[in-house]
Amino acid sequence: MFRYPSVFSEGVQSGLSLCVKTIIPSLFPFMVVSEFLVLSGTGSAVGEKLTALTRLIFKLPGCTSCVIMMSLIGGFPVGAGMTARLVEEKYITKQQGRSMLMFCLNCGPAFSVSAVGIAMLGSKKIGIIIYTSLVISSLSVGFVTRFFGKGEADILIKTRSDINGGAIISSVKNSVNAMLSICAWVVLFSCVGSFVDLLPMNEKMKAVIFSLFEVTNGCKTTSDVLPVFAIAGVIGWSGFAVHCQVYEHLKKCEMPYGRFLLGRLLNSITAMSVCFGLLKLFHCETNVVLLSSKVIAQPYSVSLPSAVAVIMLVLFLIADNDLARNKQVCYNEHI
After folding, report:
1. Which of 22, 185, 298, 333 has the fewest CB atoms nearer than 10 Å to its CB?
2. Overall number of domains in the chain
């Protein structure tokens, strides 16, 4: 740091730019919506319709269905954050939360399809194959977890109907705190990445180190020197930067970090295997010009799911205010 201060300064600036331009605009709406789904009880109400399905596949209560869905489209921290919130609000047991943390941690389609597929590999088709591999991997690991655990009974709790004006306020407040933590880790590991570039080693070793520590640079360096299916493994592993972002949620569920690492390793190996098979089944070509060029990946780039999340948030806010107003009117009439 003292010898190359400008390099680390550029790393910090790059991390801050990534936070301001991509992560906050696209990830923050998902985080607010996910918090509101849990705090207001909306997710539990919706999940009642899917209880039979979640019990059959994952041996989990219906309220977890929204978490599983959001984890597949919302980006890495969203699913883990919702899982920890379900445990805090006593919708599920800690054992069930630990099972969910084994597979409810995924990248969104924007990163797999747009950043990796189109920007890095020059092929939307490959991006879709990689994302499909990750979804299949996540659901497969989730299915396997149903056969493990101590068999704790579900928490008997009624679906909440007490949506009030405080739910949206708490959702925004909690999301802001979580967003600050995520941005801090992004900046730190961006700085670490600038240090790795200075090390005297070949490109394959750098790809391995980047893949272990940070998913964006890991995918970029892997796409240059390793087969395409290895990228699915890098995203399935997700990198220590993401691990640090969700470590707080692991503690809330009392999940040992070693078990979490095992889950990431299973996701990585399964995703690579599935991606390898799909690439054999659906022949794809990559653009070698893009592979050799410098690409700035945007793991949380704005996408259709982000727009849907914003619309959902607005609808929730309208419904939240209406219900709060009706309750106040009824209360006044009663007085």
Report:
1. 333
2. 1
